[in-house]
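Can't paste images in this forum, so I'm doing it all in text. The chain is below; anyone willing to post the predicted structure tokens underneath?
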Amino acid sequence: MRCLFIYNPVSGKGKIVKKLEKIVNALQTKYEIVDVYATKARGDMTRVVREAAKKYDAIVFSGGDGTFNEVVQGVGDADRVPELGYIPGGTVNDIAHSLHIPKRLGGALNVILNGENALLDCMKINDKYAMYIVAAGAFTSASYTTPQKQKKMIGRIAYGVESIKKNLKFQVFSIEAENGSEFVRTESVFVMLMNSHYVAGMHLNKGSSMADGKVEMAILRQRKKPNVFQRVRAFFALIRLFLHGYKVREKQITRLEGSHFVIRTDDSVVWNFDGEKGITGNVSIDVLPRKINVLVPKGSKNI
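Text version of the structure:
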């Protein structure tokens, strides 16, 4: 079997570079051929993975949730999707938490060498892809506007600092959303579609599945021209959502579930795909069932 190990040398404070020899030696105990590639710029991971999917049996990669997204972009259109081995190396690592993959290198390698294959859903958004979250509105830009240097220095706290700097105004935008059976038209400050258990390090979507052919959507409603009290109310509603989870009893939150969504919104609305800056405006979202083949711990439940 042929394996490509591809990694982001700046993700997770660059620690993976120091462990490169250990990783390659471990992979060689399972795969006959192990090639190595270090990404050089944003988007490079996607390009390499797209080509590697045609000739490798396995692609092992290291990085954060944004790196995982780049890999999904690369295999999303592929007819042949190799097994994916993941070594978490980011700041938050929501996908790793959802899949029970240890952040510790030894534990992650053990999953790759001795784990089992899980066929997981992903989302196709227009002509792009996301593995676990599509979101827009308050605080969603922090994951891709926070400077890498700042993330290296103070980790998760950097996201909080960036959020406070840029998102406290809670910009209101119009949204129409339908899932084939329900239709919602409202003003909103935050929209999120989830195919995971963890978001922003919080166990937000308990009891969900990444392989059930559907995703969960939450819309935080707001008045078109809110007063101070209404702004504060929306802020606390968002806090309750993240502290208590998707099913929290909150009057300002509308929930939808399904495998196909059409969302119409302002052209100024920027979507976040797995922590990375995505497209703007209207989107059509389809769940691609059991599309992504990921190695997970043997006997894993509730994935």
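The first strand starts at residue 2 and ends at 7. Confidence is low (pLDDT under 50) at residues 144-167.
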